[in-house]
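Friendly challenge for the regulars: who can give me the structure tokens for this chain first? No prize, just bragging rights.
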Amino acid sequence: MADQNDPKELILESYRIEGITESECRSIFLDWALSVGIDSQVAIAGLLETYGTDNPDHPMTAILKDGLAKLSEPRRRGGWRSRER
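First reply, four minutes later:
Bragging rights claimed.
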């Protein structure tokens, strides 16, 4: 049965591929992010708990941690609203 955070099992399969590179993991992560229909931050945290704990040195774990960190960083508002008036 597929994990609710990884319905297409893309992340699971990346952990199964021996010798996978960070670049390949990033591509898989992007495909996952575009196809997931739930809160990404919650899903990434769940994936890290499910797969990252047992595979701390795997490149996908690094990508997931990076994705979680970037989602939690505040975003700068650009354009005319950020300029002094």
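The chain has a mean pLDDT of 86. The helical segments are 10-16, 22-35, 40-52, 59-72. Your move, everyone else.
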